[in-house]
Each structure stands twice: as structure tokens, then as C-alpha cells.
Design goal:
Chain B: Pfam families: Pyr_redox_2. Chain B: GO terms for molecular function: ferredoxin-NADP+ reductase activity. Chain B: It comes from Lepisosteus oculatus (Spotted gar). The structure holds two protein chains of two kinds. Chain A has helices at 29-35, 61-66, 72-78, 114-117; strands at residues 6-12, 18-24, 56-58, 88-90, 103-106. By secondary structure, chain A is of the alpha+beta class. In chain A, strands 2-1-5 form a three-stranded mixed sheet, with no helix packed on it. In chain A, strands 3-4 form a two-stranded antiparallel sheet. The termini of chain A are far apart. Chain B has a six-stranded parallel sheet. A five-stranded parallel sheet of chain B has the order 3-2-1-4-18, with helices on both faces. Chain B has helices at 3-16, 21-25, 52-64, 82-85, 97-106, 124-130, 159-166, 191-201, 204-207, 214-221, 243-250, 267-271, 276-290, 295-303, 403-406, 412-432, 444-454, 461-478, 488-496, and strands at 44-48, 69-73, 110-113, 133-136, 142-143, 156-158, 183-187, 227-231, 255-257, 306-311, 314-321, 328-339, 346-357, 360-363, 367-368, 387-388, 391-392, 398-400. Residues 1-38 of chain B have low confidence and may be disordered. In chain B, strand 12 (328-339) and strand 13 (346-357) form a beta hairpin. In chain B, helix 6 packs antiparallel against helix 17 and helix 18 (461-478) crosses helix 19. Classes of the chains: A alpha+beta, B alpha/beta. The structure holds flavin-adenine dinucleotide (FAD) and NADP nicotinamide-adenine-dinucleotide phosphate. Residues 188-193, 195, 232-234, 238, 240, 242, 245, 315, 364-367, 408-411 of chain B line the site of NADP nicotinamide-adenine-dinucleotide phosphate. Flavin-adenine dinucleotide (FAD) is lined by residues 48-54, 73-76, 81-82, 86-87, 91, 94, 117-119, 137-139, 141, 163, 192, 195, 367, 372, 402-403, 410-412, 415 of chain B.
Chain lengths: 125, 497
């Protein structure tokens, strides 16, 4: 592939570290994470089949606007994502294009649901 | 326990009880830590249960620790828990997680031992002698009961058994549910209820391309069920299912939704202010109930021969039996009044009653975890192992993850996150010294000896892969992804071939 087919993406992982990689145009962000062996725990559990929300990513506002339409099916899965924001999308549904070059995407913290922070079973005897 | 067994335990405990590295080495065990360390030995951890909780906990531990060994014990000869025996056959994409689990099982510091029931083949106390930490991830093997008269009548099944039947769980292979009546009632409005409804109503042409068992496919092909009523004790804004599954129901080929617009009156304004997931779900439901279908969808619905509907604000009070008491022919429901609003709304029953004629009743009000060993604390009221961030309360060295830790709700991703949390607690305790690794533990060598004495021989992951290959081959002949084996003895034979 020629250099002009490469797109630079900056990922910010759950620890706030920035990881910069290059992906090929046409690849999805999930493909990039897998190809580059990026170590985001539990990312892409259903392998890009729109059956989970583990490849949830948060985009910058202006980048988000460029991402193209979102299907009902993707919205349905996003509804189950942890830490959903107004600029959230599923990485498996976003394909790289030259216009996205240099974007920064954030891997949301895996804040598990509220029930977990409550100690289970300590209140009853 | 008889005399010889007693002697045997004493011998084993003498060897391993003090966990002196010398005595263990003399039995062929070699510490694998290359770093000369007198303080800490290779941490050995075992996990009970090989569902998503077991595998995700193992994954996180292996990834974040350089020397720790993880052994996974599973009751059945086959791994993956509800991913194999729960997830609906028409949702194969959900089962892709199996690929990651398989990678974990192939990790050089991970071993799988199937066909080992913890609590009966080996106790948790013995596991604690063999390992520095024991993580309980054995899910929820029971179901909540309705607690109403007639619950045990033929024609009434738990969703757990019904799902187990169509998914090939060995213990449910002979369920033979009676599908000869026209109407089925499902109690509960969660995703399991929708799975069951979909399997009952789906065209056989679609089901036969899935890994649904051959025998249940035959029974469903001969089914007379035309109408499925999904009954909830609360209102339309409290349904427990998620939007993807509801959308699938609404679009289900050959079936049409039958929703009473009266149930949805006045909800439009309320919906606006709900959080996004509940808002979108309610909008979809409202649309299906209130808007007349047009165009292609109207044609589709007109041609549909089957239907399904939600019934709201109804609690089961009694199963109605045939005059001779031989089987269920209906259900009596109490009419409820909703109090409060939103997710926390509650109901109180009124004097009102409604009888529904139906020959099939499926109780889908939830799974339930059960205690497996008296040595493990258990909260009977909440049906979970009492814990703090996965550390079992008042039981050092014991941890838990998944449904047995949180209760029987949450999708695989929820289970993944809570399993990572538990793994983090284990790693922290190793780091802080709270989990004492100053003495070596024998791990599987010890367990193996115990199991041999019990006449139990475990199935390795390679053994499972033989079963897997045979199932896939058998499925191929029938044009399906796999044909599951239903018989444990047959599984064991194949695994050992
Ligand atoms: C019918 C159904 C359908 C579902 N569909 C989906 C879906 O489509 N998508 C989704 O994201 N989530 C789905 N879920 C939820 C998902 O299955 C759970 O979140 C997840 O399986 C819980 O994982 P677990 O490991 O805690 O329990 P389980 O998956 O139940 O695993 C527990 C394991 O422990 C073993 N075990 C039990 N007792 C012992 C013992 N004494 N000794 C040794 N081993 C033992 C069991 O055999 C089992 O393999 C579904 C759940 C159900 C019930
Ligand atoms: N496709 C998928 O992603 C999928 C498929 C299957 C299962 N799952 C997940 O697996 C988990 C378990 O599913 P589930 O359907 O078993 O449980 P669930 O989602 O908790 O639903 C249980 C249903 O039973 C009702 N109920 C509980 N106790 C009752 C009682 N005493 N009387 C009458 N009704 C009662 C609940 O109503 P109340 O709300 O009033 O309590 C609710 O409607 C869920 O988290 C689910 O999302 C996911």
C-alpha cells in the first residue's frame, strides 16, 4: 500500500495513554485495533458482528459529525455501552478514510454498572 | 466416607498439607519460577466454571501476571457455559466470544478440566489446599420459582429447562415440552422470554440452519403454537428486554405483534424525558402498538399466520388444571396497579383476575444461583455469594465472578467487566501479600490424585476439541453449523478416543 492509503489514528487508552498507529483506508477501527495488536481489554468481543458494544469509542465532536449515518442496529447496541456519550460510535462500524487522518479516539473506561460498586449480599444476614 | 478413602485423604494431606516445596518436588512437581525467590512461589489459581465469567477472569489474570497458573474446572465435559447452552441458536454472532475463550484455553499457563463437579467430585476446601486462590464462577444453575399452585403440572416449564432443551443441555434432553396447544404464555419480559418466544414462533426453515438440536427442531416443526403472550407484572415502561431483541421480535418473519393501544395511552409525553436506552426502547414499542403498518410491512403482517403480544400489569396466581388435574390448560392472573414510575416502579395486586387459556406456560422470571459447597458463604436471600469487589466475604483465598457474584442479570459484556474486576482484586491481593504465596501449592497434581480416587477422569481442552470436531462434522451433513451431542457418556467416549 502506498503512503497515501495510510491514515494516522491516535487512540487514548483506558489509562489515558496515547497510542499512535497507522491504518489502511477502508479498514474499520476494530480491524486497526486487532491488526496493530492494541491491548484494550475485552475490545471487540463479537468480532464486528453488531452483537455487543465492547468496541465502543468516543470521538471528537467535529470528527463525529463526519462519520456518516448511524444505523438503528448500531444505535441499539450503543444503548448498552458503558459510558455512552453524544459522540460515541462502535469501532467496527467506522471505516478509515483520508479525511479522518490524525483523529483522536478515546477508549471509554470500563466503568461497570452501578450495581457492582455496591457490595453484594452484605446487607442481609 | 469409608475407611480406605479416609486413609487416602490423610496420606494426600500429609504430602501436600504443609505444602513444602521439597515434598512436592519429590512427586514430580517443579517450581517454574526461574527467579530465585524464597519469598514467593508461582501463584496457582483455579476457577470453578467455564462460562464467560470463568474465561474472562482467566484471561485477565494471565495477561496481567507473568507466572501465574490458571486451572479451570467445569462440571460438563464441554466448556463455555451459557454461551453454548443459553445464547439462542439463531444468534450465532454472539458466540464469537468462543474464539477468544479458546485462545485463553490454549495459553501455556492455562488448563481446562471438564467433567469435574466442584462440591461433589472435589470440595472447595481441597481446592484451597491445592491452590493459592479459588475463584467461583459457576453461574446460576437454578431458576426462580413462581410459588403458585399448579406450578408442577405438565405443560408448565421453566425457561431454563426449555432453553436447555433446545440448546442441547444434557440434563434437559428428555424434556419433550407439550407444544400441542394454540396459545403459549411466557411469564417475564426479559431477553430470555423473548428468546423463547422467538424460538417458538420462528419459521422452521430459519431454525434448521442453526445449531438447534435435531430433536427440538422436529418438535418445533410439529408445534401447534400460533400465539405467544409475554406477560409482565409491571407496565410497558418497565419491560426488561433490550431494544435489539424487541426489534427482532417485531420483524419476526411469519409473525405479527398484537399490542393493545390502550396499554400505551398517554405514554408518549412521558417517554421524552427518559434516559436514551429506555427512551429508544419505549419509542419502538409505542410505534409498534400505535402506528398502523403501511406498505410492505402491512402486507407482511396481513400474511402472518402467527402472532405475539405483551400483557402488562399481570402477576400469575394459579395454574388452571384440566378437570382431571392431569395437565395445565390455563393460567389465572392478578391485575396489578403500578405505583411510582420509571425503573423503580412497583406493583400492588388488585382484586381483579383474568384467566387465559393456554396449554404451554413457560416461567421466565429469572435464573438463580445455588450453593455448591458448605465451605463457601452463600446469601440465600439474594442468591449470590456475598462478596466485596469479588472477594468472598470472610473467606480469604476465595473469590467469585459472573452471575454467582452479581445475580443472574447482564449480558456477556457485563459479565466480562465484572470478571476483570475480580481478576484485578486477585492481582492486588497477590501484590499486597494478602494472598500468601510464601508456600508452594501443588495445583493440579493434588487434584488429579483426589479425582483418581473418586473415579473421575477429567476432559482436557484437547478432549473438548475432539467433541467439537465431531459435532461440526455431524452438523455439516445436515447443513447446520453443528449438531450438539446430548449424551455425556458419548461426549466422554469421544473426548478419550
Ligand atoms: C437463555 C440465555 C440467553 C442469553 N443470551 C445472551 C446473548 O445473546 N447475549 C449476551 O450478551 N448475553 C446473553 N446471556 C447472558 C450471558 O449468558 C451471561 O451474562 C453469562 O453467561 C454469565 O456468565 P457466567 O460465567 O457467570 O455463567 P455461565 O455462563 O452459566 O457459566 C457457568 C459455568 O459453570 C459451570 N458449573 C456450574 N456448577 C459447577 C460446579 N459445581 N462445578 C464446576 N462447574 C460448574 C456450568 O456448567 C457453566 O459452564 C444469556 C443468558 C441466558 C440465560
Ligand atoms: N440477546 C441478549 O442479549 C440476551 C438474551 C438472553 C438473556 N440475556 C440477558 O440475560 C439476563 C437474564 O435474562 P432474564 O430474561 O432471565 O432476566 P431479566 O432480564 O431480569 O428479566 C426477568 C423478567 O421476569 C420478571 N420477574 C422477575 N420476578 C418476577 C416475579 N416474581 N413475578 C413476575 N415477574 C417477575 C421481571 O420483571 P420485573 O422487571 O418487574 O422484575 C422481568 O420482566 C438479562 O440481563 C438479559 O439481558 C441477554
Amino acid at each position: 500500500l502506498r503512503a497515501e492509503d495510510k491514515v494516522t489514528v491516535h487512540f487514548v487508552n483506558r489509562d489515558g495513554e496515547k497510542i499512535t498507529v497507522q491504518g489502511n483506508t477502508g479498514d474499520s477501527l476494530l480491524d486497526v485495533v486487532i491488526d496493530k495488536n492494541l491491548d484494550f481489554d475485552g475490545f471487540g468481543a463479537c468480532e464486528g458482528t453488531l452483537a455487543c458494544s465492547t468496541c465502543h469509542l468516543i470521538f471528537e465532536k467535529d470528527v463525529y459529525k463526519q462519520l456518516g449515518p448511524i444505523t438503528d442496529e448500531e444505535m441499539d447496541m450503543l444503548d448498552l455501552a458503558y459510558g455512552l456519550t453524544d459522540t460515541s460510535r462502535l469501532g467496527c462500524q467506522i471505516c478509515l478514510s483520508k479525511s479522518l487522518d490524525g483523529m483522536t479516539v478515546k477508549v471509554p473506561e470500563s466503568v461497570s454498572d452501578v450495581r457492582q460498586s455496591v457490595d453484594v449480599g452484605t446487607t442481609t444476614s | 466416607m469409608n475407611e480406605t478413602k479416609d486413609c487416602f485423604w490423610k496420606r494426600i494431606l500429609k504430602i501436600y498439607g504443609n505444602t513444602r516445596i521439597v515434598s512436592v518436588c519429590s512427586l514430580g512437581y517443579l517450581g517454574t519460577r526461574s527467579v530465585a525467590s524464597t519469598a514467593a512461589h508461582q501463584p496457582k489459581v483455579c476457577i470453578v466454571g467455564s462460562g464467560p465469567a470463568g474465561f474472562y477472569t482467566a484471561q485477565h489474570l494471565l495477561k496481567n501476571h507473568q507466572s501465574l497458573q490458571v486451572d479451570i474446572y467445569e462440571k460438563l465435559p464441554v466448556p463455555f457455559g451459557l454461551v453454548r447452552f443459553g445464547v439462542a441458536p439463531d444468534h450465532p454472532e454472539v458466540k464469537n466470544v468462543i474464539n477468544t475463550f479458546t485462545q485463553t484455553a490454549h495459553h501455556e499457563r492455562c488448563s481446562f478440566y471438564g467433567n469435574v463437579t466442584v462440591g461433589s467430585d472435589i470440595t472447595v476446601d481441597l481446592l484451597k489446599r491445592a491452590y493459592h486462590a479459588v475463584i467461583l464462577s459457576y453461574g446460576a444453575e437454578g431458576n426462580r420459582s413462581l410459588g403458585i399452585p399448579g406450578e408442577g403440572l405438565p405443560g408448565v416449564y421453566s425457561a431454563k429447562d426449555f432453553v436447555g432443551w433446545y440448546n442441547g443441555l444434557p440434563e434437559n434432553k428428555s424434556l419433550e415440552p407439550d407444544l400441542s396447544s394454540e396459545t403459549a404464555v411466557i411469564l417475564g419480559q426479559g431477553n430470555v422470554a423473548l428468546d423463547v418466544a422467538r424460538i417458538l414462533l420462528s419459521p422452521v426453515e430459519l431454525l434448521k440452519k442453526t445449531d438447534i438440536t435435531e430433536s427440538s427442531l422436529e418438535a418445533i416443526a410439529a408445534s401447534k403454537i400460533q400465539r405467544v403472550l409475554i406477560v409482565g407484572r409491571r407496565g410497558p415502561l418497565q419491560v426488561a428486554c433490550t431494544i435489539k431483541e424487541l426489534r427482532e421480535m417485531i420483524k419476526l418473519p411469519g409473525s405479527k405483534p398484537q399490542l393493545d393501544p390502550a396499554d400505551f395511552e398517554g405514554l408518549k409525553d412521558v417517554i421524552e424525558d427518559l434516559p436514551r436506552p429506555r427512551k429508544r426502547l419505549s419509542e419502538l414499542l409505542l410505534k409498534a402498538a400505535m402506528e398502523k403498518p403501511v406498505g410492505k410491512e402491512a402486507e407482511r403482517q396481513a400474511a402472518a399466520s402467527r402472532c405475539w403480544g405483551f400483557k402488562f400489569l399481570r402477576s400469575p396466581v394459579e395454574i388452571l388444571a384440566k378437570a382431571n388435574g392431569a395437565r395445565a390448560v390455563g393460567i389465572r392472573l392478578a391485575v396489578n396497579r403500578l405505583e411510582g414510575s420509571g425503573d423503580s416502579a412497583r406493583v400492588t395486586p388488585t382484586e381483579g383476575r383474568e384467566d387465559v387459556n393456554c396449554g404451554l406456560i413457560i416461567n421466565s422470571i429469572g435464573y438463580q444461583s445455588l450453593p455448591i459447597d458448605p465451605a463457601v458463604p452463600f446469601d440465600y436471600k439474594q442468591a449470590v455469594i456475598p462478596n466485596t469487589m469479588g472477594r468472598v466475604n470472610q473467606a480469604p483465598g476465595l473469590y467469585c465472578s459472573g452471575w454467582v457474584k452479581r445475580g443472574p442479570t447482564g449480558v456477556i459484556a457485563t459479565t466480562m467487566n465484572d470478571s476483570f474486576d475480580t481478576a484485578r482484586s486477585v492481582l492486588q491481593d497477590l501484590e499486597s501479600g494478602q494472598l500468601d504465596t510464601t508456600s508452594a501449592k501443588p495445583g493440579y497434581v493434588f487434584v488429579k490424585a483426589v479425582l483418581e480416587q473418586q473415579g473421575v477422569s477429567p476432559v482436557s481442552f484437547t478432549g473438548w476439541e475432539k467433541i467439537d470436531a465431531a459435532e461440526i462434522m455431524k452438523g455439516k451433513e445436515a447443513g447446520k453449523p453443528r449438531e450438539k451431542l446430548l449424551d455425556v457418556a458419548e461426549m466422554l467416549k469421544l473426548a478419550r478416543a
